[in-house]
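Supplementary Note 2. Why include the ligand at all?

Several targets in our set were suspected to adopt different conformations when bound, so apo predictions alone were not considered sufficient. For every target with a known small-molecule partner we therefore ran a joint prediction. The input for zinc ion is given below.
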Amino acid sequence: MKKKFCVTVNFKTPMKNKLFSNVGLLLSIFSLLIFLPSCQDDEEEIDCNTYQWEYTGDEAPDTWPICSADCGGQSQSPVNIAGAVADDNLQALVPAYNPVPIDLINNGHTIQFNYDEGSTIDVNGEEYELLQFHFHALSEHTVSDEYFPLEVHLVHQNAAGDLAVVGVFFEEGAENAFLSNFTGNLPASENQNYTSEDMVNVADVLPTNTGYYTYSGSLTTPPCSEIVTWLVMKSPVEASSVQIEAMSDILKDNFRPIQALNGRQITEFN
Ligand SMILES: [Zn+2]
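The joint prediction is reproduced in token form.
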């Protein structure tokens, strides 16, 4: 697979007259002669066996589709949330989450809490099991083009293997009691863990207001599979500036840029 840094020469520019046309053609050929050798020199061979996607640099989000074709798909996430339409068929989410021991890992892309088996959520009549939750800073979704400093994703899977991900935004305010269970012990470097017998329940991170936005999308990291029903809670919850900073310092802008809706409709439950 090749990643190209070539300068493209546009031969299709409308030409006003023949003189300009001739000059334009000569300039184009000249440009090609100048840039062709450097183009080949700068062409970088991407080996998908060793490719490690990142948020910045040579393996930034614009390169993800090179080794994960789905990342270039038409139903990608995150998206900007605007113009949502109320849908009377939607119901409030019904979480049935158990308290579990703390099991955090820094996997190099995010801080992830692996949730013990047995916790579920009912999403409009479909049952999904909670697998894990993890964090992004800044938020991945935006609302009317506005970012939040932090977003948590609760990842659930149904029997068919499809995912339902609940997103909750954080805004700066009072200390968040749920986060305070582990924000003093966050695993700062890749492959570092933090485990504890202290029992926590992620139900405590959900906002009181049950309103949410929903749309069909994808994983926001490679392989970007388009198998996700997104459920983004409308009301943000609060976290202190110290808590947000502790998270952000480790997460280092692990948010994928906003993806095109491509005609998808965002609906909402109020
Ligand atoms: Zn996520």
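Residues 2-45 form one domain. The chain is about 15% helix and 30% strand. Comparable summaries for the other entries are listed in the accompanying table.
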